[in-house]
Amino acid sequence: MSDLELSSSPDFSPPSIPAFDDDAADAARQRQAELTKPPGSLGRLEDLAVAIAGLTGDPRPTLADPTVVVAAADHGVVDRGVSAYPQAVTRAMVRNFAAGGAAVSAIDEVVGADTLVVDAGVDGPPVEVDECDGDDTVPVVDERIGSGTDDLSNGPAMSRNDAIASLEAGVRTARTRLSDAGIVALGEMGIGNTTVAAALTAALAGADPDRVTGRGTGVDEETRAHKVAVVERALSRNGLDGGDDGDGVGAGGDGDDADEPTDAVEVLRRVGGYEIGLLAGVALGCAADRTPVVVDGVVSGAAALVADAVAGDVRPYLLPSHVGSEPGHAVQLDALDLDPLFDHDFRLGEGSGAALALATYRAACRTHDRMATFTEAGIER
Questions:
Q1: Mean pLDDT, to the nearest integer, of 78-99?
Q2: Region Disordered: start and end of each range (predicted)?
């Protein structure tokens, strides 16, 4: 995936992920040829239906009970002035998600998706439902790893145990709370997390920090340049800036961990976030259950990079949504071989683009399942 050589992670064992089911895909392909339409006339919808059949192992998948997972956490790097908003907005937005007042909440209503809100490490005490105002309040699931990460530009964002815990929390969420979902979309919230995503993308995709660091919450160009410098410092302090002292790729930085072996968990530990680790775990856990996962923007894209680096077998289960306006997102899509469905110039996050894409994936499967064949319709060809 990049020029960063990653060793194995013996202290984190991802769940076993089943291979693509060629027989189910072939059966779906054969059904497509028999449906009442000219061959190929539904274009990409036909390809999506066949691909999802192979992922789920069902020649006629339905993708019932779609769910958008919105994982939230805070980041110590926000103290570096990388965001236009204060850290307190993370907690306020979690309350907004729970009360159904966010953009992704509205989109979920339109596409018929449930919203699962997860506190992975918001600063302060756990977010309680009674903090949230709304007639249709959804619970906030407590999977807190800590009360926000440390400043990654000064050293590791978290301990290795916490990095592993975030991945395990995501797998646990997938295997328990998402076990009935036919398809899952990844969403997030965390002031400062586009800086974190840029650092992870630079490290895992082998990209220049300036290329993958965007305006995030809408900062000006001067602040974006400052963000780039913060990302560069984070990579250097954590031994992820591409230097090599002969003991292994990734060594050579000036941080305390510069000479340690580098694996995907270690990259997450050094420059990651709790919500990103949790979403990576969700992707792994869903894939283990043959549940497709829709990737949203640059932050959930960073989680997808982490999941792919931890267990490459997850990649077929990662489905694209949109191409976001954050520059790092295009780099992520390229690294993961994902071809986006649309470009609406989104940069909100929350899972908004992934939620919107759910309608396309469900339409692909519904037309594949519900359309009559020529024989059923009594039409001669």
A1: 95
A2: 1-41, 237-261
* One CATH from 3.40.50.10210, 3.40.50.300, 3.40.50.2300, 3.40.50.620 for 61-359: 3.40.50.10210
Distance (Å) of CA 222 to CA 53, 82, 156, 229, 233: 48, 10, 26, 11, 17
266 among known catalytic residues = no
378 burial level (CB within 10 Å; 0-12, 13-18, 19+): exposed
Our CA angle for 281, 217, 206, nearest 5°, is: 55
Assess contact for 235 and 202: CB atoms under 8 A: yes
Q: DSSP secondary-structure letter at 322?
A: B
- Cβ atoms of 188 and 275 within 8 Å: the answer is yes
**Which residue of the set 143, 168, 266, 350 is catalytic?**
350
Q: Check: pTM over 0.85? Answer yes or no.
A: yes
Q: Cβ atoms within 10 A of the Cβ of 365, count?
A: 25
Measured from the Cβ of residue 172, the count of other Cβ atoms closer than 10 Å reads 15
Q: Domain ranges in the chain?
A: 61-359
Report the pLDDT value the prediction gives residue 247, as an integer from 0 to 100: 30
pLDDT tens for 204-228 read 999 999 999 999 988 899 989 999 9
pLDDT at 3 (0 to 100): 56
Could you read off the pLDDT of 241-257 as tens digits, one per residue?
A: 875 433 333 433 444 55
Sorted by sequence, the CB contacts under 8 Å of residue 281 that are 6+ apart come out as 166, 167, 168, 169, 170, 171, 172, 173, 174, 307
Name the DSSP letter for residue 122. Answer: -
pLDDT tens-digit series, residues 111-126: 999 999 999 999 999 9
Specify burial of residue 215 (Cβ count, 10 A radius: 0-12, 13-18, 19+).
middle
Separation of alpha carbons 360 and 344, rounded Å: 15
